[in-house]
Amino acid sequence: MTLISQIVEQARLAARALAEFGGGLFNPTVRLGITGLSRAGKTVFITALVHGLMRGGRFPVFEPLASGRIAAVRLAPQPHDAVPRFDYENHARTLVDERRWPESTRQISELRLLIDYQSQNGALRTLTLDIVDYPGEWLLDLPLLGKSYEQWSAECIAQGRHGARSGLAGSWLAHLVTIDPLAPADEGVAIEAARLFTAYLQACRDERYAMSLLPPGRVLMPGDLAGSPALTFAPLELPEGAEPPHGSLSAMMRRRYDSYREVVVQPFFREHFARLDRQIVLVDTLAALNAGPDAVRDLQGALVSILDCFRIGRGGMFSALFRPRASKILFAATKADHLHHSAHDRLEAILAQMVAGAIAQAGFEGAEVDVIALAAVRATREGHVRGEGGTLPSIIGFPAPDETAGGETFDGRSEVAVFPGDLPADAGALFEPGSHAFRGLTAGCGHDTDFRFVRFRPPQLEQISEGLPALPHIRLDRAMQFLFGDRLQ
Amino acid sequence: MTESFRRPAAFQVDDPRVVVAEQQLVLSESSEQALVATDSRIADAIANRSRHWRWGTLFWSACSGLVLLALGIAVTNFVEELFARTPALGVVGLGLAALAGLALLALIVREIFGLIRLGTIDSLRHRALTTIGNDDRDEGRAVVTDLLSLTRRMPQLARARHRLETHLTDIIDGRDRVQLAERELMEPLDTEARRLVLSAAKRVSLVTAVSPRAAIDMLFVLINALALIRKLSVLYGGRPGTIGVLRLFRQVISHLAMTGGVAVTDSLLQQIIGHGVAARLSARLGEGMLNGILTARLGILTIDVTRPLPFAALPRPALNDLVGILLRPEGREAGDLGRSEPGKPEK
Questions:
Q1: pLDDT digits (tens, 9 = 90+) for A261-297
Q2: What pLDDT is stored for residue B73 in this prediction?
Q3: H-helix or E-strand containing B12?
Q4: What separation, in Å, do the N-terminal and C-terminal C-alpha atoms of chain A show?
Q5: Which helix (H) or strand (E) holds B9?
Q6: Residues of chain A with pLDDT under 50
Q7: Which residue of chain A is at minimal alpha-carbon distance from B175?
Q8: Which pLDDT does position B297 carry in this prediction?
Q9: Shortest CA gap B342–chain A (Å)
Q10: Which residues of A touch B21 (CB under 8 A)?
């Protein structure tokens, strides 16, 4: 049954790829996959990218723009009529005028960008760049495609009983032991279990815990599916090997889990992830470091399981026709402006360590891989603070209202210099199992943490004669050069 | 954390201890001298090089010392003689000798500075190559700063330099920064270098085709090659004196020996065809063609040796392109020469 559906799925993907390959010969298109868990900065990245390209921002490393070969960049109607358009104008206004970060994304949306450029040999061309924005929570569902209900239940329960999560999962686990999975199906029990399970997952997302591995993602960000039976399921403690009787609670839960995968997850994967040309994986490493070692390991687990789902590697003629793959993948540690640039190498090392498996796999498949520290919008300036123990390399900016650091709460109107703490030189030490190498917010020691990365407000732009300039950034040009600079040769 | 990691801290921005980083870094005019005088790595590089040639250097230094001494004694004797004959003549002679000595000193100093500058360019290229490899941010910034001061006297780069300077305080990684500098600063110079190589190659092929004696073309080819090396070196920021040019020549020749095998395979066909067709028309013309192609190759190798950055972001000029251009106008010139050919035996 699953085998047949898998074959059908693959055939569908191949057919679409074939059709698109034909179209791509006349109108070169880059499908840019922007992958990132929630709060990693996908929306900000897309907004800054479009804003910078359309305004011809300062991108010295992005060669086509720096050497003046890009004539114009314009927005175009997107390919799929049923998907909302990425609300670029609103997001840009929020960032630039109101100096707030965009709200977290609740819906999938698309944007198509046309880049008119002149190739190195003088020919006038147009490159189409397709970009998709979606709630990062949904990404967590991709690993479910390869898991049965029984596997998933067992994993969820094991996670809930372990480490920092055990404190949060208490009421859900207490309810869990009262349920008999083999009893006849009862909607009331199912709703209650789903409610408690959702509450537990929501609690894990708090800034103090910053857990990442929280499938199923639609439970957290339901979109238009809120309350539907496909979302009303929860893991159950199942007896080993016993086939649940027809009409039992566990049979119902399993059916809902399967339909969730088929109705919700698979179309999402098929529409937006199976056919990417280039991919950027945005990772908010700093939030995990803020929270503590458990959050860091959790983030690593989530990334590993998600990256397993992607097809990465250099494609030949055959694979371009039938199995398109992302031939370049960029791992970006976002919010690099929360650190002094001298610490960027260490941040990159931590991220590289976190996704080491995926990097090795991508390299093996022949894809080009790079790891950078990125800030799509740079909210801070740099400086240093002279103290007793030498100078502290610091960043200066306006912290977001209600952010705290060192026992102080900021009002969002005064500028502050922050030293966020030294990142470890040896990135591997962070990931050793069982080690509690540093103290984060999870440890509950209040303000006495080893790192404190404060969220800053977006920068104030100074009016110039041609209106507002493009937003400042860190290495956004390098990311663009890596992701699609070669297609603009 | 077991090591002594610094704890996070926050300060108000008006705290006197807070220092905001400079938004715009301005290079001082004197940094060029500082670059030449203080960069110990350059001194190391020169020391390393001279170690290989210690005996040769010793020999030539001793010889030139002897010649100088002999010259000094001869001049002293001559001036004394002049004094013995007429004191007035002696004063004039002494003055002339002093002027000559001063000029010689100036020449030597200029030669030394020229050599140091060539060493700077060499080490800059090596550093840039290392930076492209390891993507070191600070080293990339240092390389670009040094490059900016090296090219400070080049008026055609004023705008490019300004653009590059505005990016000095941006956070850009080492490899990207070096490639950015290459795109900004080297592109106009590369175009000019190609033009120089091409015109030298044309001149050589023309002169070889019409010159009456083989010895004359050999001399012309050699002089032309040295002039080309000098021009290219000056173009890319060097200021070589005579010894500097000779040293560059030696580097180019050893470079030719190393890359010759590779270069032969990629352009042999072109050369044979070019040479063959021209040779059918006239043996002399064929020789001229070959000499022109050799000069073009020498020019490209000289660009490799004198360019302060390696070719990374921009394409290296290919011999085939140059030869292609060389062949096209030659076609027209071949017609012209063909007409003038009957007039030659009358000479």
A1: 888 888 888 777 777 888 898 999 998 888 888 888 8
A2: 94
A3: strand B9-12
A4: 47
A5: strand B9-12
A6: 316, 320-321
A7: A61
A8: 87
A9: 44
A10: 381-384
CA distance A382 to chain B (A): 6
Question: Across the interface, do B17 and A408 touch by the CB < 8 Å criterion?
Answer: no
Q: Answer yes or no: do A392 and B9 touch at CB < 8 A.
A: yes
Token output for A433: 């199992």
* Contact at CB, A406 and B10, closer than 8 angstroms: yes
**Helix (H), strand (E) at residue B11:** strand B9-12
What single-letter amino acid sits at B289? M
Low-confidence ranges of chain B (pLDDT < 50): 1-3, 24-48, 50, 265-266, 329-347
Total beta-carbon pairs less than 8 A apart between chain A and chain B: 113
Picking from B9, B21, B183, the nearest residue to A383 by CB comes out as B21
Residue whose C-alpha is closest to residue B121's, from B64, B208, B39: B39
CB-CB neighbors (< 8 A) of B175 in chain A: none
- Is B5 in contact with A417 (Cβ distance < 8 A)? no
In A, which residues are within 8 Å of B179 by CB distance?
Answer: 61
Please give the Cα distance from A330 to A334 (Å, whole number): 12
Alpha-carbon distance A392 to nearest alpha carbon in chain B (angstroms) = 9
**A381 interaction partners in chain B (CB closer than 8 Å):** 20-21, 23
Residues 6+ away with beta carbon under 8 Å from B323: B267, B270, B271, B274, B293, B296
User: What φ, ψ does residue B249 adopt, rounded to 5°?
Assistant: -60, -45
Which phi and psi angles does A34 have, rounded to 5°? Answer: -110, 105
The span from the CA of A397 to the CA of B18, in Å, is 12
CA dihedral A57, A58, A61, A66 (to 10 degrees): 70
Residues of B in contact with A417 (CB under 8 A): 10-13, 15, 18
Q: Which residues lie closer than 8 Å to A160 by C-beta, 6 or more apart? A: A166, A169, A172, A173, A200
Task: Look at residue A114 in the predicted model and tell me its pLDDT.
Answer: 93
The CA-atom distances, in angstroms, between A300 and each of A202, A250, A289, A307, A357 are: 19, 31, 12, 11, 10
Q: Do B7 and A450 touch (CB under 8 A)?
A: yes
**pLDDT value of residue A81:** 84
Judge residue B135's burial from the number of C-beta atoms within 10 Å of its C-beta, 0-12 exposed, 13-18 middle, 19 or more buried.
Answer: middle
- CA–CA separation, A357 vs A386, rounded Å? 41
Contact B254, B125 (CB under 8 A): no
What is the predicted pLDDT for the residue at B111?
92
pTM for the structure as a whole: 0.81
Q: Are strands A278-283 and A29-36 parallel, antiparallel or unpaired?
A: parallel
Contact A282, A335 (CB under 8 A): no
Chain B interface residues (partner A, CB cutoff 8 A)? 1, 3, 5-13, 15, 17-21, 23, 137, 163, 167, 170-173, 176, 179-180, 183, 313
Rounded Cα distance between A139 and A283, Å, is 13
Q: A413: which chain B residues are within 8 Å (Cβ-Cβ)?
A: none
Nearest CA in chain B to A404: B10
- Which residue(s) pair with A331 in the sheet? A281, A371
Q: Collapsing DSSP states into helix, strand and coil, what is residue B211?
A: coil
ipTM above 0.90, yes or no: no
Residue A131's closest CA among A87, A70, A100, A89?
A: A87
Per residue in B135-168, pLDDT tens? Answer: 888 899 999 999 999 988 888 899 889 988 888 8
User: Which among A58, A389, A414 has CB closest to B12?
Assistant: A414
DSSP B10: E
